[in-house]
Amino acid sequence: MTVFEALADETRRRLLVRLAGGALSAGDLAATEAASRPAISRHLKVLRQAGLLEVRQHGRHRIYTLRPAGLSPVRELLDRLDTGDRPAVAPPVSEGRLAALDLEVRRTVRESRPPVSDRLPQRSSS
Q1: Are strands 24-25 and 61-66 parallel, antiparallel or unpaired?
Q2: How many CB atoms sit inside 10 A of residue 64's CB?
Q3: Model pLDDT, residue 126
Q4: DSSP state of 120
Q5: What is the CATH number of the domain that holds 18?
Q6: What is the tally of structural domains in the chain?
Q7: What is the pTM (predicted TM-score) of this model?
Q8: What is the pairing mode between strands 24-25 and 53-58?
Q9: CA distances from residue 78 to 22, 81, 82, 84, 113 in whole angstroms, order as listed
Q10: Which residues have a Cβ under 8 Å from the Cβ of 4 and sit 6 or more positions away?
Q11: Which label site among 3, 35, 120, 126 has the fewest CB atoms less than 10 Å from its CB?
Q12: What average pLDDT does the segment 17-31 reach?
């Protein structure tokens, strides 16, 4: 399973966020999830197979830790998508033409409005 497939599941992403705070046992991770412990164990297995977690045995408990190096494919993709050093794509219409269009729309709206005196409510004389 790839890192991207592992990250596609919301439960697995929540587990990773919790593990970013430090090592936790499977029981600790399952305690805050709505899913059953066996389901959480399956999620942890998927994350481990994707290279995102390390596990060690501590007595009867398995302790899971985040393996940040496992996120390198995600970082590489994000770096490739980052447009910070490339110029922004120019709009298909120039700024000057957009300003002219804006002015024309404002004129048309202004000309199509009835005079203010026609828009004021009429007072009845009683």
Answers
A1: antiparallel
A2: 24
A3: 55
A4: S
A5: 1.10.10.10
A6: 1
A7: 0.63
A8: unpaired
A9: 25, 5, 6, 11, 51
A10: 73, 74
A11: 126
A12: 94
Domain with 45, as residue range(s), is: 3-71
Residue 99 located in a structural domain: no
In-domain check, residue 11: yes
- Does a structural domain hold residue 126? no
Give the integer Cα–Cα distance in Å for 122 and 106: 28
Residue environment code for 18-40, b if the CB has 16+ CB neighbours within 10 A, otherwise e: bbeeeebbbeebbeeeeeeeeeb
Rounded CA separation 76/53 (Å): 19
Confidence of residue 107 (pLDDT cuts 50, 70, 90): confident
Per residue in 50-101, pLDDT (tens digit) is 999 999 999 999 999 999 999 999 998 888 888 665 555 565 666 777 777 7
In a domain, 25, yes or no: yes
